[in-house]
Design goal:
The structure holds two protein chains of two kinds. Chain A has 20 helices and 21 strands. Chain A is α/β, with parallel strands linked by helices. The chains are: A alpha/beta, B mainly alpha. At the A-B interface, strand 2, helix 13, strand 17, helix 14 and helix 16 of A face helix 10 and helix 11 of B.
Chain lengths: 545, 393
């Protein structure tokens, strides 16, 4: 009788440490939590908080012996997992406890068909093969909502979309009807509309099969949507845990409060219908030719951006939203003439389309860009001061050494960094700080117009809100004009005065942001907003599967 | 001070559990942490590290070959004045001789003249240069190492010089070649010229290779396509035969050979650098630099070249060793450096034609083998040092 009353998974006082050159560092510090049968527990925290490490140690998937457990126990159905031999734990992995990972691109073997991959799991743990395995595979694929499962059996992973791949991963995890499913950020790599579908699927299956779910995420919206209980992790410790309702309505720990308050405040720059136009395009096209055959004849085009017309006025922020592959980033690069395009681009009254490198240079001072990846956007071999001053050397070569330094210091203050740090190298800074350096590099030239290409997407929740505040402050101070490209609608909503929604290179809908958020006209926009703000799936047909 | 230092945002204080986020600032010159790590990795490859020092010391010492093996003393004290014959050429009349020609310090007549005036000659360790013919050979050339000679073989020379035994002769430690020249002296000079040749060839061909690869990788498109096809055709030419033909047409010399070998060696780095530039030009910080209006030349030098240098550095020791090998091969075949130059290849070919004198072959073989092994070991250590995934306990 005892077996029924005890929790399915009971993690007690668990610590995880990693050996490295200088000794051992603790990634997880004495955490305890338990998962009852049929419940969903979410581990939430920022990157580096130890949530993934905690989950991986349940299945002993950490790189032992580099990783060690200085203390703790993990009991699954009353059996201790930590002391188990590799052979015993293998019989539990994929059988009693399954796991799905973040990256559906790399979690599937590209050389095997879907049938082979699912069949292998069935063979390994239940010894099923042949026609029986095939019918079970079909059943699983139907269960995870893959359309036309019969034709998909012979498909290779690259023939499926990201969402479908994640569905296959879930099918594989479900193959042996596990008691516990660990989902390690399963939707982070997916578009918002697909994310909503996968979440719906997961909670559906969990309820139907009476399975328990350990859900790891950094997104509080997802936690609220799917979990029964939540453990908030920070710096390797669980700082707060309890039922989702309680934690969200009355958080106790200051960190949880900060996390919940980290939502960017919506305070967009007001539309300026009479201000001068900074940049405008008419029927802008970026077509990549598809060439085939011996003579490389052009047989068609990939239309990355197809006939986009936009106008941005001084002091405004134009938000460009859309899913991955919709052409948002390509549009941003083309506006700055960093990739070639067709159609007029009028910047401050001059058509800059077709200007040569030398002719373009005077304009570069007034148009800048900030990229998504704070790790890739800074040259690792230059000091922060050199990185920021690089543009000054090009555009204001007459500046003396000390004038240049003054400008660098001023730019660093503008973005809220200590100017004393300017002699350091990028790797010494955190992601949020690096993004500030990228912004400093852009604003040091005192531009009129900045393209922000997903500047907050790579940052943790807490820093996203700070970044939004910083961008807004800079805009007010220097009267900047922004184009803000993002797939994160919450961030866009807090900054954009105008909005364009892109899909497949075309503008689906445009208008003043306040109006558009209230009354989306097209089905696609409605589906996008539903998925992003409420994590709901739309009526089928409006979005990709 | 009215200056207000803006407080760093709260994220600076968040220390991840996996180590400190921001190490303290260092003032003054220090190698970057990355280079420190590389140096540590290089050192932990013991074989390569020791090879590096042995090679460096050998090369450094061989640069002063004139002071180690020479037929001129490096210092002569004569008549209260100091003379530096190893560096400056003096005529015989300086020391009271009869001829205006350069003094031959090995000549017993001159030695006597100096000694009579109470002068002293300070000789290098080995009293032969690479071109000195030992005129007092006990046996016909090629002659055995002196320490292998029997008293009977030595007798005529010993008597002629008025000495007591073989042991008092000027030693040819590794014997002489077929023209009576000291093998040790020729090895020292030959090593120097081989290494200098290898380094010069590597340096120039890397400069050309990096430039060509960089231009191709950065600009891509038709430039890349054209260059790549040209290189394919160029590398399809059987280079050794062409080298043989060219060196039999042109008068061979150090720089002529360098030029001829350069024709083919520059391609070795092109592919590598091209690939690095192709990869690098899509980095966001390159796009950021373009958005700042930085010119292509500056982007290539400041941002892309440092990335390509890592891959290049890894290859350099191997290119040096292959350059040395090519020179030795040409010398061996007789198409290399002009006759009379000290060269390891020529020593090997003498060893081949004088099988009765095994010291020639052995000396040539071991010096080439040791030199190339040292270079390869260094190359392995450099490769380890630049490998970002390599970990040492």
């Amino acid at each position: 009788m005892d077996a029924i009353n005890q929790p399915l998974l009971d993690v007690n006082d668990l610590s995880v440490g990693f050996h490295h050159a200088g000794g051992m560092s603790l990634a997880v510090d004495r955490i305890s939590f338990r998962i009852e049968r049929g419940r969903c527990v979410a581990l939430v925290g920022e990157s580096g908080s130890g949530k993934s490490v905690s989950a991986l140690s349940v299945l002993k998937l950490l790189p032992y012996p580099t990783a060690v457990h200085p203390s703790g126990s993990i009991r699954f159905k009353g059996r201790e997992l930590l002391g188990m031999s590799e052979k015993e734990i293998r019989s539990i992995r994929g059988n009693d406890i399954s796991i799905i990972f973040q990256e559906p691109m790399t979690s599937l073997n590209p050389l095997h068909t879907i049938e082979q991959q699912i069949g292998e799991i069935l063979l390994l743990h239940s010894g099923v093969r042949g026609a029986m395995a095939r019918s079970r595979t079909l059943e699983l694929l139907t269960q995870v909502g893959i359309p036309e499962p019969e034709t998909r059996l012979a498909s290779y992973p690259h023939q499926l979309s990201g969402g479908q791949r994640q569905r296959v991963m879930i099918a594989m995890a479900l193959a042996n009807e596990p008691d516990l499913l660990i989902a390690d950020e399963p939707t982070t790599a997916l578009d918002v509309t697909v994310q909503a579908q996968i979440l719906t699927l997961l909670s559906d299956i969990q309820r139907r099969l009476g399975m328990s779910l350990l859900f790891i995420t950094h997104d509080l919206g997802i936690v609220r949507r799917i979990a029964d209980e939540v453990c908030v992790m920070n710096s390797g410790k669980i700082v707060e845990h309890g039922p989702v309702e309680r934690v969200f309505t009355s958080p106790q720990h200051p960190y949880t409060k900060a996390l919940l308050a980290a939502e960017p405040k919506p305070d967009p720059a007001p539309p300026q219908p009479h201000a001068p136009v900074v940049i405008s395009t008419d029927d802008l096209k970026i077509w990549f030719p598809i060439k085939r055959g011996l003579l490389r004849r052009t047989i068609g085009h990939i239309k990355a951006v197809d006939g986009v017309k936009l106008t941005v006025r001084k002091g405004e922020t134009l938000g460009v939203v859309g899913e991955s592959g919709s052409g948002k980033t390509t549009l941003g690069l083309a506006l700055l003439r960093l990739i070639s395009s067709q159609g007029p681009i009028v910047f401050l009254g001059k058509d800059i389309q077709g200007l040569r490198f030398q002719e373009m240079r005077p304009f570069r001072r007034d148009m800048q860009i900030v990229f998504q990846d704070p790790y890739g956007a800074l040259s690792p071999r230059m000091s922060v001061s050199d990185i920021i001053a690089e543009g000054l050397g090009v555009h204001q070569p007459s500046l003396t050494e000390s004038q240049r330094e003054d400008r660098v210091i001023k730019a660093l203050r503008d973005v809220g960094l200590d100017p004393e740090t300017r002699f350091r190298y990028p790797h010494e800074f955190s992601g949020g700080q690096r993004q500030r350096i990228s912004i400093a590099r852009a604003v040091v030239l005192e531009p009129d117009f900045v393209v922000l290409d997903e500047p907050t997407s790579a940052l943790d929740m807490l820093f996203q809100a700070q970044m939004v505040d910083l961008l807004r402050e800079l805009q007010r101070k220097h009267d900047l004009t922004y184009i803000f490209i993002s797939h994160d609608l919450r961030v866009v909503a807090s900054l954009a005065s105008h909005l364009i929604v892109m899909r497949h290179g075309k503008v689906v809908e445009e208008g003043p942001a306040s109006e558009l958020f209230k009354n989306p006209k097209s089905d696609y926009t409605r589906a996008l907003f539903a998925a992003a703000f409420r994590l709901e799936t739309a009526a089928s047909g409006a979005v990709a599967q | 001070m009215s200056e207000i230092i803006v407080k760093p945002p709260p994220e600076t204080t968040s220390v991840t559990p996996l180590g400190e986020a921001v190490p303290p600032i260092s003032h003054g010159f220090r190698a970057s942490p990355l280079n420190q790590r590389r140096w540590k990795n290089f050192k932990s490859n013991g074989r390569g590290y020791w090879s590096f020092w042995i090679f460096a010391i050998l090369f450094f010492v061989s640069l002063f070959a004139e002071l180690i093996a020479n037929d001129k003393p490096f210092l002569v004290k004569f008549d209260g004045k100091l003379y530096w014959p190893a560096v400056i050429s003096y005529s015989e009349t300086t020391f009271g001789g009869d001829f205006e020609t350069a003094a031959d310090y090995r000549d017993p007549f001159l030695q006597k003249l100096v000694a009579e005036k109470g002068g002293t000659m300070y000789w290098p360790l080995i009293r032969y240069s690479y071109s000195t013919h030992n005129l007092d050979l006990p046996t016909p050339a090629p002659s055995k190492p002196t320490w292998l000679l029997t008293e009977e073989q030595c007798k005529p020379v010993v008597e002629k010089k008025g000495l007591k035994s073989c042991r008092d002769l000027e030693y040819n430690w590794l014997g002489t070649d077929d023209q009576g020249r000291d093998v040790v002296a020729r090895l020292i000079y030959g090593f120097r010229i081989s290494v200098l040749f290898g380094l010069a060839l590597t340096l120039i061909s890397s400069i050309i290779g990096i430039a060509a690869g960089g231009v191709q990788g950065y600009f891509g498109g038709w430039i890349d396509l054209g260059f790549q096809r040209f290189i394919e055709v160029w590398t399809a030419i059987p280079s050794l035969y062409l080298l043989l033909i060219l060196s039999s047409v042109l008068v061979p010399g150090f720089f002529v050979l360098l030029g001829i070998l350069l024709l083919f060696s520059w391609v070795s780095l092109v592919g590598l650098v091209r690939a690095e530039f192709l990869r690098g030009r899509n980095f966001e910080y390159i796009t950021a630099a373009r958005a700042l209006g930085v010119s292509s030349k500056v982007i290539m030098f400041r941002h892309l070249l440092p990335n390509a240098m890592v891959a290049t550095m890894t290859f350099l020791p191997f290119i040096v060793s292959s350059s040395v090998m090519t020179l030795t091969a040409l010398d061996f075949l007789g198409f290399g450096l002009p006759p009379g130059s000290p060269s390891l290849g020529e020593l090997l070919s003498q060893g081949k034609s004088n099988v009765q004198a095994p010291w020639l072959g052995f000396a040539g073989f071991f010096s080439v083998a040791i030199m190339l092994s040292l270079l390869i070991f260094i190359g392995e250590a450099v490769r380890d040092a630049f490998d970002p995934r390599k970990t040492f306990r």
